[in-house]
Write a structure and sequence with these properties.
The complex is a heterodimer of chains A (206) and B (175). With 206 residues, chain A is mainly β. Chain A has 2 helices and 10 strands; from the N terminus they run E-E-E-E-E-E-E-E-H-E-E-H. The chains are: A mainly beta (206), B mainly beta (175).
Chain lengths: 206, 175
């Protein structure tokens, strides 16, 4: 019984590229966050890309072409997995500082999806901290990047958005429909309605 | 009972006169709807974009509703605020939109407005900032008593919302 109430979400895709017009030598880390009912059945929850320079043309893209392959299982769509990405690059002293945090939900519909995720960095909360971070060359970072996937406690943070990251997903699902979940608009021709309501109507007519 | 999952993001806002924006949001439903899990209201971070025209919040939403009826389909409402360099907040716009009724991913643009007030209020707002606000925020998503208001258009709030419906077809409801 327990196994029959489980659905699977298989996600494959890649962290394609990013736009950070002001920086160079960027690498990106990713991790997935999910609710309590969710489990990873295969694949890596976290990863780290190579360091890339921006392209020489006028687009100035950072291309990673980094693969993502992960399968989730759950009994409840609540707590749907989110991808958290955080990009780092060296500052003038050569220490790695964060260049952007971003997040998005794994698409809830099967098929191919390409998303452009805005990337932002947290700002110092006071002028004094701004000054000390300028002197010490350390800028504010999140202790746990997973906070960007939470809806709570965001009112206290100030951020500056400064770039985009492009991710593509291919999503396959198993047993969603069997558990009664509709993730796509019902097809008029093949609607489940015709099987149930229509048949019982035909039976009464007969 | 039908179940609705709303999974998505308040992506950001564009078209406002200043940046450095944040947004207070909430979801209003009819009486037959119940929240099983997730937050039904919140506030985004303050985004001050470096070099583009739109503010981005990437504020995640993940709510699970259960319902006995379709009446009072959920509405999401917003208050967009501007925070200046001294930390003072000024109202920039009200807006609401219905959650989509069909499952799948939806990109939504929600236009916003703010009250203009009288001529003298507009003059004082031009020099001092601030401006009239709604005493009763229910007006954002209700149609009653709106005729007394004078308003002006503000920017747009951008949403990407995914809907998953459960057991709707069992009751013969086509979405």
């Amino acid at each position: 019984m327990a196994s029959s109430s489980v659905f699977l979400v298989m996600v494959s895709g890649q962290i394609e590229s990013a736009e950070f017009p002001e920086f160079d030598d960027i690498y990106c880390r990713y991790c997935f966050t999910h609710g309590l009912d969710w489990l990873i059945t295969s694949g890596l929850e976290e990863g780290i890309t190579q360091v890339t320079k921006k392209s020489q043309d006028e687009k100035q893209r950072f291309v990673w072409n980094f693969p993502i392959d992960i399968t989730f299982k759950s009994t409840n769509p609540s707590g749907w997995p989110q991808l958290v990405v955080h990009a780092y690059g060296p500052d003038v002293f050569g220490t790695d500082v964060v260049r952007g945090y971003g997040n998005c939900h794994v698409p809830i519909t099967p098929g191919r999806h390409k998303l452009r995720i805005p990337m932002f960095v947290p700002e110092s909360s006071s002028a004094f901290q701004k000054l000390t971070s300028w002197f010490l060359g350390r800028r504010p970072e999140y202790v746990d990047p997973r906070v960007v996937a939470q809806g709570e406690g965001r009112e206290v943070t100030r951020v500056r958005s400064q770039g985009f990251l492009t991710v593509s997903f291919n999503v396959v699902m198993k047993d969603m429909k069997k558990l009664g979940y509709d993730v796509l608009p019902s097809d008029v021709v093949h609607a489940a309605l015709i099987e149930t309501v229509g048949q019982s109507q035909a039976a009464t007519e007969a | 009972m039908g179940e609705v999952h709303v999974i998505g993001q308040i992506v950001g806002a564009s078209g406002f006169p200043e940046h450095s924006l944040f947004c207070k949001w909430g979801i209003h439903t009819g009486g037959s709807w119940k929240v099983l899990s997730g937050l039904r209201e919140g506030q985004t971070q303050v985004d001050n974009p470096q070099n583009h025209e739109a503010a981005y919040w990437s504020h995640p939403i993940d709510i699970h509703f259960a319902t006995k009826g379709l009446q009072g389909w959920p509405k999401i409402h917003f208050q967009v605020w501007h925070q200046d360099q001294y930390g003072r907040n000024e109202l920039y716009g009200y807006g609401f939109c219905h959650l989509p009724t069909s499952p799948g991913v939806h990109e939504i643009e929600c236009s916003t407005w703010r009250p203009t007030g009288t001529f003298f209020q507009q003059i004082s707002q031009f020099f001092l900032g601030g401006g009239p606000q709604l005493k009763n925020p229910d007006l954002i998503y209700s149609g009653a008593d709106r005729y007394k208001l004078h308003t002006i258009a503000m920017g747009k709030v951008h949403l990407r919302l995914g809907l998953i419906l459960r057991n709707f077809d069992r009751f013969g409801i086509e979405c």
